[in-house]
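It would be a great kindness if you could assist me with a short task in structural biology. The matter concerns a single protein, recorded as an amino acid sequence and a row of backbone structure tokens. Kindly check, if you would, that the fold set down in the tokens agrees with what the sequence suggests. Thank you for your consideration; the sequence and its tokens are set out here:
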Amino acid sequence: MLKYENYVFLDNLGSWLFIGGFVVSIILTVFIWIFFYTRGSWQDKLNMRRVYDAFDIISIVPTFIAVLTVFNSFVISPATVTHTSMEPNYFEGDNIFLLHMTKYNRFDVVVVLAEESSYLEESDNYSMNEYYIKRIIGLPGETVSIANGSVSINGELIDDSKYLKLNTMTYCDLGTNENPDDVCTFVVPEGEYFLMGDNRRASYDSRDVGTFKEDHLYGKVIFKVG
């Protein structure tokens, strides 16, 4: 991992270079536009027109980047699946597209900020944000119960079998800690969601770390390439 000060510098450098280049392109565009239309003769305007057209083409690049950045941040953005917690529907290495600023429903697949970056003083390193891809099971205000290998919402069994491998059972714990006799109940606070992976035996999710705030949901998966 990078040292904290190096990470912050590199993280900010790209942003400042982009902002600086975009501002400069706007200033130059306005300047050339004013200069072109305040020239005296039509010959001067014709000569400057070639310069202006050339610069106009160049100025499209930062404008396109700005539009793409805004679109990527607030509308749709790509991501890559890591780990195996969403198999058999999403495999490690699959490319996905996320829709931001959307309403979330049960069984939506979302990417969530699981752990925010932090400065590790003991190692002088800066940890990275960690994201999970999971499926929404419990909505705000609901009670999620797991018993006998099945999931209930407010006392009623839900059918999530079409998202899981055949004969998959859901237990309170994972892997070698699974106990079919265990019963666990989770109350989902308002503004939060209960998330689980489709690979129930190998998914570190709300059964272990609790519910996730809606503000930490990065977006809903709407398309997969892989």
